[in-house]
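Changelog note: in this version the structure field was regenerated for every chain. One regenerated record is shown below for reference.
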Amino acid sequence: MAFTNSALAKAQALLMANFANSELRYREPATFKAFVANSEVMMPSHKLLRTREDRTVEAYFANRSSRSLGSARSHNHSGNTGSSGVLTPSWVTKTDKFGITLKQGDNNFMDHAMQLQSEFQNVIANMAEGLESAAVAHLFANRSQVNGVTAEGSFDGVNYAFEVTESTNGNRFLQIIRSTMDILKYAGGITIFCDTIAYNKFSYLAAQGQGNSVNYSFQFQNVTFVHSIDLNTDASGLSYTKGFCIAVPNGTIGCLDWIPLQNRQGIETKLQSYGSMINPVDGLLYAVHGYETALDGTSTGGYTQDEKSQIEVSIDIALEHAPLSTANETTLQAFALI
C-alpha cells in the first residue's frame, strides 16, 4: 500500500515525530559495524582493484612456518622455503527498492518530499537489519572447528564450541575465555559477540567491582562486548540456554564494501540515473539507481497522467576473517555455558 492511509480526504494529522520514529525503528547493526571498523585496514586498495562486479580480487599473505629450535650452529645448514596463501573475497550484493509516483503527494498531508524521505528511512532500516543478520551469520558459520585447549572446559567437536560448566565456573566465564584465547596464541584485545543471555551475564559481572562483596571486574580489561541478538537463535539451535558467545581477536575480521564506478561518479543518462548516498548508520557509500516510467497512478494515491520513479539502493560487501593455514581453524572461537 502506498501513502493512501494519510490522504487529505481523511483529514488525518501527521504522526508526531516520536511516534513515527517508533514505527520506523530498527535494530542497531552492532555486529556489522564491528566488521566495518576494520575494512580499510584489511585491504585498503580494494575499491580501486575491483573495477566491476565480475572482476576477481585476491589478497596474499605469508603462512606461518613453525619449527623446533636447533641446539648447535652448523656450516652446512639448510632450511625449507616458506609459503604463502591467498584470500579471495566473497562478494554479495544487498539491495532494497521502492517506487514513488510524481503526483501521489499532491492530495496528501505528506507531500512528495516527505514521502521520499520516509522511503529512504525504510531503506536504511532494512539495510541495517539485513546486514546485521549477515554479519552474525558469518561469525556463526565460520566459527573455528579446531580448539585443543582443555583447561577448565572442553571443546565440543560437534557444536564447535568450548564449553564451561556454569555451576562451578560461570562467574569466571570471561576469565576462562581470555585464558583460552591466550593459549591459542591470541594476545591483545578481543571482541566478544554475545547472545542475550551471555551479554546480560557479562554486564552484571562487570558491575561487581571493588565495592561489592565479590569482585569480578578483574576479568574485563581490554575486552569489548557486542550484543549480537541474532545469535539467540543460533545458540538455541545448539541447545545452549545458559549463554553463548564468539570471541574474536581484534583486527581479524573485516568488511570490504564496493559500488559501481558510474554510481561513484554520479552519471545521468536519458534513461537512467546512477548516484550514491552515505548511509548515516554505518557510514558506507551505497549505490542509488533510478529510472522513470509513465503510468496511471490512481491506485497508489497518484493521478491518471502520472510518472513513477523506480529506485534501488544497493551495496556489495565481502565479510571476511583472517585466513589460517590449519584446516578448519579460524580466529572465531565459540564459547558456551552448560
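Spot check on this record: DSSP finds ten helices and 14 strands in the chain. The mean pLDDT is 87.
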